[in-house]
Amino acid sequence: MSNWQNLLLDSLLGTKHVDSAALIKLHERSLCVASPGFSVMPSDVQTLVNGFAKNPLQARREGLYFKEKVYKCVRADDYSLYAKNENTGVVVVKTHQYLLVATYTEGMYPSVCVEATEKLGDYLRKKGD
User: Fold this and answer.
1) What would the pLDDT profile of 13-41 be if each residue is shown by its tens digit?
2) For the purposes of burial, counting CB atoms within 10 Å of the CB of 94, is it exposed (0-12), middle (13-18) or buried (19 or more)?
3) Is this model's pTM higher than 0.90 or not?
4) Which of 90, 100, 97, 87 is nearest to 11 (CA)?
5) First-to-last CA distance in the chain?
6) How far is residue 62's CA from residue 49's CA, in Å, rounded to a whole number?
7) DSSP strand pairing (30-34 vs 20-25)
8) 52 and 98 in contact (C-beta within 8 Å)?
9) Could you write out the DSSP letters of every residue in 12-61?
10) Separation CA 76–CA 55 (nearest Å)
11) CB–CB of 17/109 below 8 Å?
12) β strands within 11-68, DSSP E
């Protein structure tokens, strides 16, 4: 397992409130690493990158189509994008070089998923990643 994958497993999935996680290389628009069993298709990568490349207000209005589901965007700014679909959701945090993606499912606390993902994003930004 890579250091990146260990970081995702320990800091995100270790909370028990993140179902799956991935790290996307922002400039290459490609998947760097994902938690076991979490496949992020190139079209999903493009959707997430575009969520930040476009005006965040547009993402709020239009929502987010991710992993064959339409999510209602509840937050969209220069560094964070939160979206939900019934009892599931996706949290995306932008750093200098990466998009950090975390999902939660029914029975998990979205607030814990958000907090863990934002903390890891802050850590990566401070490192220069």
Assistant:
1) 999 999 999 999 999 999 999 999 999 99
2) buried
3) yes
4) 100
5) 20
6) 15
7) antiparallel
8) no
9) TGGGTS-SEEEEEETTTTEEEEE-TT----HHHHHHHHHHHHS-HHHHHH
10) 9
11) yes
12) 20-25, 30-34, 64-66
**Of 10, 21, 14, 35, nearest in space to 93 by CA:** 21
Rounded alpha-carbon distances, angstroms, from residue 35 to 53, 54, 63? 25, 27, 25
The secondary element (H helix, E strand) that includes residue 88 is: strand 88-94
Token pair, residue 28, equals 């290459």
Instruction: State which amino acid sits at residue 111.
Output: S
Six-digit token string for 27: 């400039």
Q: Report yes or no: 86 and 66 within 8 Å, Cβ to Cβ.
A: no
| Tokens, residue 10 | 């320990």
